[in-house]
Amino acid sequence: MQRRAVTAVLAAAVLMVTAGCTTDDGEQPDTPGSSTPSSTSGTSGTKKPEGSSSSPAAEETPPAKGSVEVVRTVAEDLDTPWGLAPLPEGGLLVSSRDKGTITRVDEETGEKTELGEVPGVAAAGEGGLLGLAVSPEYASDHMIYAYFTSASDNRIVRMLYDPEKPEGEQLGAPDTILRGIPKGTNHNGGRIAFGPDQMLYAGTGERYEGPLAQDKDSLGGKILRMTPDGQPAPGNPFDDSLVYSYGHRNVQGLAWDAKQRLWASEFGQDTWDELNQIEPGGNYGWPEAEGKGEGDKSGFVDPVEVWPVADASPSGIAIAEGSVWMAGLRGKRLWRIPLQGTKASADPQAFLEGEYGRLRTVVSAGGDKLWLVTSETDGRGSPEKGDDKILELKVT
């Protein structure tokens, strides 16, 4: 197994204390950061969305300590992979952030087939072709959804996928269902996923303009919830609005547990990265608060867990075997957070530390299996032979 040198975490943590605003992996940004955290007012005017779960019944608690086994390398030599979406008939769709292409990977053989290039992608900094999702009606509509950075904004499109057409020509013309998500060199968000309610959720960033996160009229610094056509979903907490939760800095991971509760990972600034359990209409505090301790006095929703930014810089998350599994970019490790209801039942546990470099996306493969995507070719890693990769993991 290919090994990498592990970053000196303590030294990095000291540097983070004295550093200014950071990008997703702790490097200095190209644009100024947001204001220093302080407390302010909390949420108001919210209503519970249709289909949201009530207080959960007792659940089985996963063991405090788990394990990770790298079963095999599924695919190699991927260029700036970002989003990953399993197809119902088999195969994994992976986006290339910088090339703007979508490729199908045969999960058994590793064979790669390029579907085509998404028109209008303007890759720069952390922007480009980002998250992917497959329509909940895929069996009848064969639609693929993509979140990408254009020359003017971030937007979500859907495209018809026709595998019978020649390689490189299998994507239909994009239908834009949402435009106007603020774009920047960094903090573009980008994760999209269909929830158990068949609605499309999107995590967005505030492009280094912290006040956008508190502005419910802006699409930046939010988790959005919409119909497959891009309209505000029935039961959203704010009338005629896509906004599901706000006060976010840069949401990168979305996943639902067995009780259909939504979880999200989020990049911190100088101090704390976060794992949040998302409440409809909840205000998660940015830029007035970062990390725990503000909820009781300000009305903000406190994160469930936090990490020093040198240890995480979290990207995608998945839920398997009763735990959240969180990919770390600057942290170069996979975090396990065992859950009991809406809380962590034990301290987070780190795996694969430094072994595969930066980790971008993790997706459930069913049961105790995960797909894990590395991110060494994104301009901030140290690519080695075979990078980037998709790995198959077995977890407990």
Automatic annotation (TrEMBL):
Signal peptide: 1-19
PROSITE patterns registered for this protein in UniProt: PROKAR_LIPOPROTEIN
Keywords of this entry: Signal
Compositional bias annotation for Low complexity: 31-65
Region ranges (Disordered): 22-67, 374-396
Coiled coil: none
Keyword set includes Signal: yes
Basic and acidic residues composition-biased segments: 377-396
Domain of life: Bacteria
Boundaries of every Glucose/Sorbosone dehydrogenase domain copy: 78-380
InterPro entries: 6-blade_b-propeller_TolB-like, Glc/Sorbosone_DH, Quinoprot_gluc/sorb_DH_b-prop
Keyword Signal set for record: yes
PANTHER family associated with the record: HEDGEHOG-INTERACTING PROTEIN (PTHR19328), HIPL1 PROTEIN (PTHR19328:SF13)
Name the UniProt record assigns to this protein: Glucose/Sorbosone dehydrogenase
